[in-house]
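Ops channel
N.P.: pipeline sanity check, posting one input/output pair.
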């Protein structure tokens, strides 16, 4: 006889969090590689800002220029480095960063 499967409504809830709670969860500790900005190559086009899925590229509101990466939330996916048209972002292994 086939075992009866639970209906989805009968399944226990997972770790469901309230909406709008992403700022509470710093996802930067997942990272194995971090993006490092190379200012002399940057033309401040903000393709990296558009491409980052985590909103981890900060723009200086006064100067309108690239400011920094927010490493609290950057997961190190490397999309910014891949999309940068000027090769102004280098991905560096976190262990190499720790040695410095
Ligand atoms: S995509 Fe590259 S050149 Fe454009 S703002 Fe970002 S780092 Fe600078
Ligand atoms: S590595 Fe990924 S998460 Fe980090 S700043 Fe670049 S695009 Fe955003």
């Amino acid at each position: 006889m086939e075992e009866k499967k639970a209906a989805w409504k009968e399944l226990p809830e997972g770790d469901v969090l309230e909406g709008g709670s992403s700022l509470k969860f710093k996802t930067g500790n997942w990272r194995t590689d971090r993006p490092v900005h190379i200012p002399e190559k940057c033309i401040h086009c903000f393709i990296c800002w558009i491409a980052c899925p985590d909103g981890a590229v900060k723009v200086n509101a006064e100067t309108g220029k690239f400011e920094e990466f927010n490493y609290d939330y950057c997961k190190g996916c490397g999309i910014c480095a891949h999309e940068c048209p000027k090769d102004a972002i280098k991905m560096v292994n976190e262990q190499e960063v720790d040695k410095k």
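N.P.: looks fine end to end. The chain has a mean pLDDT of 90.
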